[in-house]
Amino acid sequence: MQPKQYHVTDTELLVLQVLWERGRATTREVCDEIYPEGSTSQYYTVQKLLERLESRNCVARNRSQRVHVFSATVDRETLIQERLRGLSDSLCGGSVIPMLTGLIQMRRWTTAEQKELKELLDEVSEKKPKKK
Question: pTM for the complete prediction?
Fold first, then answer.
């Protein structure tokens, strides 16, 4: 079965990042976070972004109070995996090795990060079925 895909624009991603950090927020709270000196038009822009995200099941709206509260229904890790899968497909013909190589070589890794990466690779290799 294909994993569910969430097509999120960069601006919608800003809204999701606020919701991931806060857990839940009103339209005004999201707007104030993204546009600290926000205008009325920016408030309505955020409102529209939340509506679009809601229509694609990326956020949920609690309508039990006069002021509606939004929360993310897609987590950061799921969205990261989807975007990386898309990059892998479009840039590398579906192969992740060139993309991983580029990520690994783009900067120096701390000893702690190297250890974490090794642990992750060990964990992934343990989950693979053994070949007979």
Answer: 0.75
